[in-house]
Amino acid sequence: MLRTRLPALAAAAALALVSPTTARTDGTQPTAPLAPALETSPLERVTFDEAVRRATERNPTVGQAAQAILRAQAQLDRTRSVFFPLVDGSVGSTILDDARGFDGNITQPRTQSAFSATLSYSFLAAARWAEKNHAADRLGTVRISAEETRRQVAFGAAQSYLAVIATKRTRDISMRNRDTAKALAEYSRARLAAGQGSRLNHVRSSQELATAEGLLQLTELAVREAQEALGIALFADDPIDASGDAALRLAALPPHDDAWLSQRPDVRLSVAELQAAERVVSDSWKSWLPTGTASFTPRYVTPAGLFEPSKTWRALFQLEIPIYDGTLGATKRVRIADRETARLRLAAVKARARSELRLAQEAVLRCEQILASSREAADNAGEALRITEIAYKAGATSNIEVVQAQQAARNLEIVAAQAEDRLQQARLDLLVALGQFPQ
Known about the structure:
alpha+beta, Outer membrane efflux proteins (OEP), 4-stranded antiparallel β-sheet, two-stranded parallel ribbon, 9 helices, 64% helix, elongated
């Protein structure tokens, strides 16, 4: 956003500064600032690799993805409980209004306590066994989703870092332009004081200096906004400054086949989702299989009754066979629809990935050519400015040519800086498209 706003803001500042400058040359006082200047303290500087690392370690979105992995692991552990027996105990006391019996025999004491435990195991549960595999698939999907989240966070931090570099480069251009305009204004003032120059030349040079000062302040603000954005991307309490250019290099050349697709987390995520959906559909028939359960329950009763001894046990073998369940057919159709949706989503992700790769490759090639042309134009404009300054000081021309040469050199330097920034962004997009970022 900073890269797109900067040229428009620069032009607006240049137009806005013309009238105030003219007013000051007429003897009026400049408008007082609305707020005092802020004292800035040195900012923390980080390298590109460190910025990406800190973003992926501190960003809350990455932490939420890590918690999603733990949640999926817990769900998998819960489904695995089907392979383990269940043990539960029971303790109870029964108090009657009076003992029960006949012929002097007590069949039910007035107060009786019972202790029992039940050990049960599902020896046949095909549907629940399948749920364990489904939970394992979901865990794998969540892990890949965490990688995709990490990639998006790293990509955002990288873009913020490149924005800082771009705005600082534009600020340096504005600073050099201000220094050149300042030297020209001082020279025009000295000539006017010596009676050798004209007031028109002095006014023009003063106007150019005021414009350069305004553009410099505008770029300073853009740098601060980019530093604040980088601090937010790194989840820091203060703005962060960039230290050095970003080293963006391809780990391998783009392949001619689709093998590179497996390196992209979004493609692997869609593949995992499709495989999980296919497993769910293929396991639908297991819902019609019987479910078998075996249990063993020892029981102790005190005091014993006439028809209930103190120590007993019971074993139970139970087999449940589904005969009719109207929800199973509808459930299978829903699962089939989910599978086909995942298949279409995978095709769309692959198509988008191929398009991103083609566009990134074309962008890198074009931006390299644009940067070479822009640098050549900026160098020629700088040489033209130096020649024009020499001619002006020699009295061969007026300073209007110098002002025009300054503006042309400044604009072409900004164009070259923007071209370099676009090239870095194109290289970053190419790494992301190939699945090679972050490393």
